[in-house]
Amino acid sequence: MPNKKIKFLAAVFCIASLLFMVKTEIFAATGKNSEKIEISKSKVSLKEGEEITVNNDENADITVEVTSSSKNKGFTVSTKDSKKVKIKKTNLGFSITALKSGEARIKVMLSANKKISKTIKLSISGKKKAAFGEVVKVTGKNFNKEVLKAKGKVIVDYSAKWCGYCRLLEPIYKEAAKVRPLYKFTVVDADEEEELVEGQGIGGFPTLHLYENGKFIKEGGYMQDMTVWDLIDWIESK
């Protein structure tokens, strides 16, 4: 009789344990008490100065999806590589700007439970330097660096997309940059850089400015039937 009682109690215990396990599985499957975070990309390659967005919008560079039993379904972004990347809070989420080439890690964490996280690995490459014979785009932000602080001869082409003579000059200008690669040929988009154009006193397009070792030398422009050698002669003549 005692053996039957022991067997009965053992059977009851097994059934209770099984029911508990099933209940636990169902509880987890229904999403109760479950917390997780998913990201659309775990690896990203970008260049110095490039920016990516991290938020829950489908148009973000990295989309974040949060599942949490907490009312707080937000997330935070952090990094230990602050010399290589800059994190900024935005209205939608976060933006990440690459500062320095190398490898960096970004951690995306649940606001309600920071133990729940995902890691984004960033591979950052340096900015591509302008090659010999390449026309450099100049803006108000880099004018001092690219023109006034540059050594040797620098030619600045103030050009506008709607300007017919600008379109005629463009292939000649690009060819001259290849023929004289030791000179620095630059271009300013007048439509995008109105403040710079006004500050330099540009009255028409295209306008060419010649600098040497940061000093303004002379002003020129497009001439009818102009050739590459006409442009080079203008640059090299006193």
From TrEMBL:
<keyword id="KW-0732">Signal</keyword>
<dbReference type="InterPro" id="IPR017937">
    <property type="entry name" value="Thioredoxin_CS"/>
</dbReference>
<dbReference type="GO" id="GO:0003756">
    <property type="term" value="F:protein disulfide isomerase activity"/>
</dbReference>
<protein>
    <submittedName>
        <fullName>Thioredoxin</fullName>
    </submittedName>
</protein>
<feature type="domain" description="Thioredoxin">
    <location>
        <begin position="123"/>
        <end position="238"/>
    </location>
</feature>
<dbReference type="InterPro" id="IPR051063">
    <property type="entry name" value="PDI"/>
</dbReference>
<dbReference type="Pfam" id="PF00085">
    <property type="entry name" value="Thioredoxin"/>
</dbReference>
<comment type="similarity">
    <text>Belongs to the protein disulfide isomerase family.</text>
</comment>
<dbReference type="InterPro" id="IPR036249">
    <property type="entry name" value="Thioredoxin-like_sf"/>
</dbReference>
<dbReference type="GO" id="GO:0006457">
    <property type="term" value="P:protein folding"/>
</dbReference>
<feature type="signal peptide">
    <location>
        <begin position="1"/>
        <end position="28"/>
    </location>
</feature>
<dbReference type="InterPro" id="IPR013766">
    <property type="entry name" value="Thioredoxin_domain"/>
</dbReference>
